[in-house]
Automatic annotation (TrEMBL):
InterPro entries reported in the protein's UniProt record: MetI-like, MetI-like_sf
Keyword S-adenosyl-L-methionine: no
Name of the protein in question: Thiamine transport system permease protein
Organism, as annotated: Actinokineospora auranticolor
Subcellular location: Cell inner membrane; Cell membrane
Transmembrane stretches, start-end: 12-34, 54-81, 93-113, 119-139, 179-199, 219-243, 264-289, 329-350, 362-381, 393-414, 450-473, 498-517
GO CC annotations on file: plasma membrane
Any GO BP annotation: transmembrane transport
Record-annotated ABC transmembrane type-1 domain positions: 55-238, 319-517
Sequence similarity: Belongs to the binding-protein-dependent transport system permease family.
UniProt entry keywords in alphabetical sequence: Cell inner membrane, Cell membrane, Membrane, Transmembrane, Transmembrane helix, Transport
Length: 528
């Protein structure tokens, strides 16, 4: 037993920082809001028929949007991970653009495209946002899966479909399970989309929490709904953990497979991927076209402070604020996410009970599924107790964004690190390599592509974060999504034109960020 303790000291130390961050910046604020609201109103909220209608609609639309995002995202993941086709860099950038757009603006785009679709518009808009999650997460593992087992199945007479179902799909199950869990959580907590497309007829737990907290000041009712939301989140994360626990059929054995030109039936999948990309471009093109309806008036006004100085910052200052906050948030999330992955993988190798490891993993995912309204108000209630009163600090925005980005970094890195063949590590250790050198020489090269992919993904998520930022950003540090959200809520054609111009600017910044990270991957291992 004594010999086993040093092996656990490192993983436990690595887990301490992300878990401490979670406790201070998530559990404490959320617990404070729930404690303030607990009272007789909780019972009334839980026994109301409307509450359970909200639960049913929240889960139903999230499940439907998740299914659509999975079906649409898998062909794109294949295109990015396994093929060498001109234009793949463009595809990587395009699939990220929807994810960074403020939800309220996408709601407006889908309302223009599907004015009377109702539930269908909500489901499609949520799926539109999350194709990137599926494509990026699954491609990260798919690019590393050894082709030899697939080639052997084909040589034995299996069709491409049967080879995929029997060989490739089991290997991708951890990444698909991770992506599905994250997408479901995003769809279940969708705010702007439901607010814009629900038309007062459809609502989710998220929109109801916002209504009761901000407009009705019904903290007991909001607390009850937050509790229901947490229960639903935990259930989804536990289901995702059970999927991830299933062992993969293929392991990472070394260098990632080189992408190659599609052959035969693979062109059908490539065509499907390009069809998905084309569908993603329709709402994007609608937003860009709307930004030019009045020529360049919206862009000119955005370069200043809007109509009669209605904005606290210029559009360019908002871009700088967004880039600065996203950079800080991404750096924080990469440190926390990497430490968490190292801890989870190391604890798994140390033969710790799987239930304990998965419990830690589930806890780290909780911020994805709890209302940004609850977290934001929790910060205002609790953080004055910390030195320096972070409630008035510019550091609060990147800290809140890092809370959302860190679980995404974990979900992208963890499946790859867990799938690395242990025999590679054992061989390195047999040759005298220390545990640190084994990580440096084996794990880091194999996970390098996924790490850069997580960097790009996390960065654009932070760029587009709207929920918590809208509550926490100071007037002089408003980010571009916050400015866009404020403009959408104001009357006047010029404000609308400025909002659409801001969306076009945000898309341009997103594409630039993805392209820059794409360039950093040149010469790296793999093809993610």
């Amino acid at each position: 037993m004594a010999r086993g303790r040093p092996r656990l000291a490192g993983p436990l130390a690595a887990a301490a920082l992300p878990l401490g961050f979670l406790a201070v910046f998530f559990l404490w604020p959320v617990a404070a809001i729930i404690r303030l609201g607990i009272g007789p109103g909780v019972t009334r909220a839980l026994t109301a028929g409307r509450t359970w209608d909200l639960v049913a609609f929240t889960l139903g639309q999230a499940a439907a949007a998740t299914a659509i995002a999975l079906v649409a995202g898998l062909p794109v993941a294949f295109l990015l991970a396994r093929t060498s086709v001109r234009g793949n860099g463009f595809v990587r950038a395009v699939v990220m653009v929807p994810f960074v757009l403020p939800t309220v603006v996408v709601g407006l785009a889908f309302r223009a495209l599907l004015p009377s679709a109702g539930v269908l518009a909500i489901v499609l808009a949520n799926a539109f946002f999350n194709v990137a999650v599926v494509a990026r997460t699954v491609a990260g593992l798919w690019s590393h899966v050894d082709r030899r087992a697939e080639d052997a199945a084909r040589a034995l007479g299996a069709s491409r479909v049967r080879t995929f179902l029997a060989v490739t799909l089991p290997a991708l199950r951890p990444a698909i399970g991770s992506a599905a869990a994250v997408v479901f959580l995003f769809c279940a907590t969708s705010f702007g989309v439901v607010l814009m497309l629900g038309g007062g007829e459809y609502g989710t737990l998220e929109t109801e929490i916002y209504l009761r907290t901000v407009q009705l000041f019904d903290l007991p009712g909001a607390a009850a709904l937050s509790l229901l939301q947490v229960v639903a989140v935990v259930a989804v994360l536990v289901a995702g953990a059970l999927v991830r626990r299933r062992s993969t059929a293929l392991r990472l054995r070394g260098r990632a497979d080189t992408a190659r030109r599609p052959s035969g039936g693979e062109w059908v999948v490539v065509a499907a991927a390009y069809a998905v990309v084309a569908a993603l471009l329709v709402p994007v093109a609608t937003l860009v076209a709307r930004s030019f309806e009045s020529g360049l008036d919206g862009y000119r006004a955005l370069a200043g402070r809007g109509y009669r100085g209605s904005l606290d910052v210029t559009g360019w200052q908002a871009v700088v604020n967004s880039l600065r906050a996203a950079t800080d948030a991404t750096l924080i999330a990469l440190v926390l996410g990497t430490l968490a992955c190292v801890a989870l993988v190391s604890l798994g190798r140390a033969r710790i009970r799987p239930g304990i490891v998965e419990s830690v993993d589930t806890a780290l995912m909780l911020p994805l599924g709890v209302s940004a309204v609850t977290v934001g108000f929790g910060y205002l209630v609790t953080l004055d107790a910390l030195p320096g009163d972070l409630r008035t600090s510019a550091a609060l925005v990147p800290l809140a964004q890092a809370l959302v980005v860190t679980p995404l970094v974990i979900r992208m890195l963890l499946p790859v690190l867990r799938s690395i063949d242990d025999r590679l590590r054992q061989a390195a250790a047999t040759l005298g390599a220390s545990p640190w050198r084994v990580w440096r020489e084996v794990d880091v090269p194999l996970a390098a592509r996924s790490f850069l992919g997580a960097t790009a993904f996390g960065y654009v998520v932070a760029l587009g974060e709207f929920g918590a930022t809208s509550f926490l950003a100071r007037p002089d540090s408003a980010t571009l999504p916050v400015v866009i959200g404020r403009l959408v809520g104001r009357p006047g054609e010029l404000n609308n034109q400025m909002a659409y111009a801001g969306c076009a600017l945000l898309m341009l910044v997103t594409i630039a960020a993805v392209v820059i990270v794409d360039r950093l991957r040149v010469g790296s291992v793999g093809e993610f």
